[in-house]
UniProtKB/TrEMBL annotation:
Organism: Gloeobacter morelensis MG652769
Name of the protein: DUF924 domain-containing protein
Lineage: Bacteria, Bacillati, Cyanobacteriota, Cyanophyceae, Gloeobacterales
SUPFAM superfamilies: TPR-like
Pfam families from the UniProt entry: DUF924
InterPro entries: DUF924 (IPR010323), TPR-like_helical_dom_sf (IPR011990)
Length: 224
């Protein structure tokens, strides 16, 4: 696991480069490892995010980091704080999703301004567009699926299979939104009443966001 032992445990004065160094490997030219992937998507970073970045998230919530939107890298760091760190720090509460509209706006504007295209690696680009995948508007989910597919086509490196899993997750989230118009697994925490079809889906418990890379590989092998 990538850690920053020389950094203070908690600070409101982290820079955007501090955020990027924390979230991404030190050498962006190296393929992403399974360990890093699981650290990102399976909760490996949770304790470190909570202990270190809660004060920074509070600043972002107050609008004190808005100037980070000026450049591609600093905008990416702000998106990480609003979209990723908020989900961890406010996990299992409605506040986990409260900053989604702001993160979505930053991502859409950044794509339009060329900030997305200016990023150096496919994983930086993936986290830049993830707010589109976290929203509940089908057009944005479709765009995520298209962007994720484009990253695979442009990616010759060893982490291609992880990108394929990421792209399949994007398509699966899109399919959930196409079916229900929202993410049913959020209904309880957001105080929304589930429909009978959603209750049936929730009872099965096979949610896209909890699917592991190993499960995806197994399903893929069976289908092939």
């Amino acid at each position: 696991m990538h850690t920053q032992p020389d950094q203070p445990l908690t600070s409101a004065n982290e820079t955007f480069e501090d955020v990027l160094r924390f979230w991404f490997p030190e050498d962006d030219d190296q393929p992403i490892t399974r360990q890093r992937f699981e650290w990102w998507f399976c909760g490996g970073a949770n304790a470190e995010v909570i202990s270190r970045f809660a004060p920074l998230l509070a600043r972002a919530e107050r609008g004190e980091l808005n100037d980070w939107s000026a450049t591609p890298r600093s905008r990416l760091a702000l998106i990480l704080v609003l979209d990723q760190f908020s989900r961890t720090i406010h996990r299992s509460t409605a506040r986990a999703f409260a900053l989604d509209p702001l993160a979505l706006s930053l991502a859409l504007e950044g794509i339009r301004l060329g900030h997305y295209a200016a990023l150096a690696t496919p994983w930086q680009k993936t986290f830049f567009f993830l707010p589109l995948g976290h929203c509940e508007e089908l057009t944005h989910l479709q765009r995520v699926a298209e962007l994720a597919k484009a990253l695979i086509e442009a990616e010759p490196r060893a982490d291609r299979e992880l990108l394929e899993f990421s792209a399949d997750q994007a398509r699966s989230h899109r399919d959930v939104i196409a079916r229900f118009g929202r993410h049913p697994h959020r209904n309880a925490v957001l105080g929304r009443e589930s429909t009978p079809a959603e209750r049936e889906y929730l009872a099965i418990g096979r949610f896209v966001h909890t699917r592991s890379f190993e499960d995806w590989q197994d399903t893929r092998m069976v289908s092939e």
